[in-house]
Amino acid sequence: MGGVVLADVVGGASAGSLVLAGDLGLPDVPLRYVVLVVALVLLAWRLTYTAARLDRLHARIEGALTALDAQLVRRAECALELAAAAVVDPASSLILASAATDALAAEDEHSAGRLEIENVLTETIDVALTPEVVAAVRAEGGAPAELVERLAAAGLRVQLALRMHDDAIADCLRVRRKPLVRLFHLAGHTDLPQPVPLDAPQRL
Amino acid sequence: MSLRALRIGIVCPYSFDVPGGVQLHVRDLAEWLIDQGHDVSVLAPASPDTPVPDYVVSTGSAVPVRYNGSVARLSFGAVVNARVIRWLESDFDVVHLHEPLTPSISLLALRAATCPVVATFHSAMQRSRPLEALSPVFRPSLERVSGRIAVSPAAHETARWNSGTDPVVIPNGVFVDRIAAVGPDPRWAGTPSRPTISFLGRMQEPRKGLPVLLDALPAILEACPRARLLLAGPGDGAEVLSAVAPEHRHAVEILGTVSDEEKAGLLAGSDVYVAPNTGGESFGIILVEGMAAGAPVVASDLEAFARVLDDGRAGRLFACGDADDLARVVIGLVGDASAREALRAAGRRRAREYDWSVVGEQVLAVYETAVLAAAPVESGPLTLRFEAWRDRVRRRVRRGAGR
After folding, report:
1. How far apart (Å, rounded) are the C-alpha atoms in residues B301 and B329?
2. I need a surface site. Which of A87, A199, B153, B298 has the fewest CB within 10 A?
3. Given CB atoms, is A162 within the 8 Å cutoff of chain B?
4. Interface contact B375-A52, CB threshold 8 A
5. Per-residue b/e over A86-117, b at no fewer than 16 CB within 10 Å?
6. Residue in chain B nearest A58 by alpha carbon
7. Can you tell me the ipTM of this complex?
8. B223-263 pLDDT, tens per residue?
9. Measured between CB atoms, which of B140, B369, B381 is closest to A67?
10. Quick check: B366 contacting A, CB < 8 Å?
11. Which CATH superfamily is domain B176-352 in?
12. B7-173+356-402, what's its fold?
């Protein structure tokens, strides 16, 4: 049976139509229509697949941004706690507390102002917790050292989230640059993702 | 410092039948994580008669495959794929894949995983042609990886080439205290009259650099005639000895393959530990082990080694492949006890930075960030909700079939 069908297909192809259809009781279909339909199906599959891929990438960026947000808040909380525990001198504590409070107040904003505030916090942490201060606190141990470690860990996590976000953007832009994506407008109304211009990581 | 106990799945592509850098890394990482109270399962190939720790789930025997210039023991295929999918059903908070770009269970897990995925790139290869050719196939899978780690700057470069992203560099770890606790093994400990110089590694593998050390031997013996050269590692000892001039053979002792414990004892008792590797090193964990054990380390000035040795502050460097320079550095150290002591102390300090307590904490930070960054499925985009639904259906179907 298979052999017969194949022969029919080959024969049909040379004649410009599929004769096998007759075998199955279906009307004759010119080959070019079959090819067209197959091509359309393939294109549709490709488009949905790419759209789903893009959707996932956008979700990844969104998720990374959520993570960055959470880590920034956690860092501000750590900084505030450290300031309240008077681990460093009172003046530094006050500056640190003020920067941390600002950051916590700006928690829900997604704006340039928020970035500015977070960068100020980074700077303040660097100024208040110089390598000498950190070394002294670490040498002493106990609760203050633990607070410093927690702040350092929070800073590391901010950096990781930032990197995750940038990585996701790089992946996403690569797909969004594809001609297919642009031609069929697969990204929909989603804005082109923008990297978050946070300053250099805190030294701690 | 972690928020809560995580359920972590780790995938090791290489077989536990033979020891190797990636396998040891996975084992140590898993043990450290379990120590921290996390729930860890490791998926790895292992033949039924290989004893594996109880946190390891085997995908069955591995086949030796020639890939990327060396032979790797990998496992793949339809049956293995089914095992990987079943393993992934244990609802991990995060899955950590090692070497995701090898044709292995890591790649299979990457395709099947629906939880947040973290990937570690270990190897440093120049450029992989097959990977470039297949990049349209791999790229969509790789886009599922949210956290990327490279163990060294060289591995970072490789990953950047092959996946176009910027992984965070987290070095390999060692359990410094475990190694330091062993102490010098009296059989191989150096004495002022008979200093010991040690070498570890496969003797017949040219890039491990044993020939360079043997070339330096005559000059070393001329300066200190009673020095002992201890060679540990797999390989044909007789062949090594035949390459040494007869009048110098008395100084060479072949120890063969040694256990972890013996290795630490050997390093701790050495007056100089030499790593004359000539290339192809991505990281140099053995140097960290040497420093942790308290051995004064002398290594070739490969980029990876120079980095581990803090540009020569935690160990001495010599010009790669240059036997005369090696002899000069070794002779200088063997004749100077205070320099050796200073180097031992500097090495111990440096090794701390590679302790699992430091390195593991960083890996955990990547896990936590990946978990945080996971989009909430319920309210997430349609695709994710569809995938979650599809997975539920698949699971139900499979459970029905298993009954």
Report:
1. 12
2. A199
3. no
4. no
5. ebbeeebbebbbebbebbbebeeeeeeebbeb
6. B381
7. 0.78
8. 989 999 999 988 888 899 998 999 999 999 999 989 989 99
9. B369
10. yes
11. Glycogen Phosphorylase B; (3.40.50.2000)
12. Rossmann fold (3.40.50)
